[in-house]
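Internal ticket - ligand job 479, alpha-D-glucopyranose:
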Amino acid sequence: MKKKEDIAVLMASTECYPMAKVGGMADVVGSLPKYLAHLGVSPSVIMPRYARPWFDKNPGKIIHDSIIQYPHAHHPFRIWQHEDSDLGYELYSVELPGLFDRESVYLAEDGHGYRDETIRNISFQRAILQWWHSDPDSFDLIHCHDHMTGLIPFLMKYSYEYPALRQKPSYFTIHNALHRGRCSWNNLSLLPHFDTWKGGLLDWDEAIDPLASALRVSDGINTVSPGYLEELPREAQGLEWVFAHERHKMSGIINGVDYDVWNPKTDTLLPHHLKKSIHSFKRKNKAELTASFAEPDLPLFVFIGRFAHQKGVDILIQSIDTWLNHHRDANFFILGSGDKSLEHLAGMVYGKYPQSVRVVFDYNEPLSHVLYAGADFLLMPSRVEPCGLNQMFSMRYGTVPIVNHTGGLKDTVPDITVDGNGLSFDGVQTDQVLNALQRAMELFSDQKSYKALVEKIYKLDFSWEASAKRYVDAYKQLL
Ligand code: GLC
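stdout (structure tokens):
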């Protein structure tokens, strides 16, 4: 129930779990608001209405019906409110016929991004602003997530279409600065009229660059870990200068985990729940996964995630290949999908070592939970990892993470040699990964130390409590 003194925050995002998830951004947008709701914030989320089962089951009601005026056409849109959901925050969806009534969030059938990405993102953002402008007092500030909503801060301040929003603050979270949503200036006519003197704030390197614009125009910004914040002024594909220059309004706030969902005692996706002992919890769940391996009791290493260069999947698979070529003392389970050439590589390793490797090409939430619970080690050789949630899910279920020392992985998984939470290596190369595997095997053979580590990490606190408070402080500073 909203109280008068609550800060009314509108979160704008193209992903939100459980309605539509591609990566960790969905987990964050789907859980942070629940925790904000206990801290004097009245949170709402607005997202596109995809052709996805959740929306069939929870249609909601239409509260706004309008058009976006483009120079030679106009595009109808409708805002739906999903009142009776038990999500823990208000949910609104934007229906944009022809643009978002698709099941896949970003990728076309050929595995590449949709070719109409630019008009999709612009229409989504214009629809949000038009609707908000029809009742400007309904929200005190907007909180945007990644480049897909990166033009909103600029349009609020400098477009002539939304004068009542000009004084409203905007806050921006960077989940991943590798994607910027750049498009050519030929798309200019898709934007509503704005103060052309300010047009430079949309531009970076002779293109419209939504991320670069959001960095310069938003009133407050955070990255999803302090480690990542530190890296960006040194390495940001040409945006280093902007990161350095805007540093004064940026902070690093580590993501939390939704402990209502990620609870080993109650997780409905697990075949076996945690009762008394974390070790028997792991043993039983592991047995669900390894029955078909030649030697089910060997240490089980898993990878869960998108098959993308960023995630280091190429190096991971080469390392597994080399390892199994020399030793047959470990099992590997890989779950994920994405880049077809990486899928091909993974398929080849399975073909070579069917007794020790399992590969499932899928985005599969239920299986991922069993893997977090049943694995002995989680591999995360990400080249870049703004925060990373998988290492936190895995620790919650007593699985030891093995990570590259970068971004949020650096913050959450210090190495055991410094009394940390897992194994950390420096640089995504096969030698580094093989060395980490060697260390993991040694640790596992010393069951006393291994079990002590498992007991330590499953009790660590990665909940939202502390981080949600930092978001509230950031909002307060803007108001
Ligand atoms: C992106 C990042 C990941 C982060 C997530 C949620 O997916 O790549 O590191 O955890 O967003 O913020």
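Auto-summary: The pocket of alpha-D-glucopyranose is lined by residues 23-25, 28, 175-176, 224, 255, 385-389, 408 (CB under 6 Å). The chain has a mean pLDDT of 96.
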